[in-house]
Amino acid sequence: MRLTLDALAVLDAIARKGSFAAAAEELYRVPSAITYTINKLEQDLKVDLFDRSGHRARLTSAGEKLLQDGRHLLRAAQDLESRVKRVATGWEAELTLAVDDLIPLAKIYPLISDFYAGNAGTQLHITTEVLGGSWDALATGRADLAIGASGEGPPGGGYAIRLLGDMEFVFVVPPGHPLASATHPLTSEDIFQYRAIASADSSRNLPPRTSYLLSGQDVLTVPGMRAKLEAHRLGLGVGFVPRTLAEEDLAAGRLIIKEVACTAPTPRLFIAWRAAHTGKALAWFLERLNDESLLARLIAK
Question: pTM (2 decimals)?
Fold first, then answer.
């Protein structure tokens, strides 16, 4: 390896300070050491990094390219050093959050912004999961924290839970659908005649879950709740959706709530995390997610 971080740091200092002498002063070295570093780098790479034909050395096009890309490497090295130090003090290098698609990510981003404001150095990774996907992510180690995991977790434990709240679902059809004109509570026989729209479970290892489907009913399966709402708006099928996510469509008349004879689902959502995880970043999120007003906002419209 002919390139070193030290040589890149010298090149960066020369470019920022405007001269070899000024770079030497910033780096607490003698000017001859700076000159030697650059000369050796040019010899190793077999390129001229500076045009020395004028009164003042200027970067060549090759030098400009090395400086530009080298600064990315320097920042990456500094970030790595910072993360290593954070890990040594109990902050995770990375934390993965699995967010159920019943909760809009826009409601999670203010929490993420507050975390970044603390300069913890932990890299965050957010995934969107559907139905049992959040539990699957925890059980298989794909996630450290699940926000909005629905229903019961898988057997075997290894995780801790905290109640987030209940989410109200309503049965919807578009205005032009045959069921829109029904004046009585819809029975299972009424609903069975029409295609259901279902969200696909994002589990990779746990058995996939289905929700509120009648045995033998025709089903259109879509990637998640936003796609499910769009399919409902287009009249491709019927089914239950969260009232909070459908509010705009209901207010605009794009969807209509129909009363059903069966009991409407009200899934219970949880905050869940891997019990063996003891890092400070996870602890920070768990502390914030203990705020009842914040939890209420996550499942409110």
Answer: 0.71
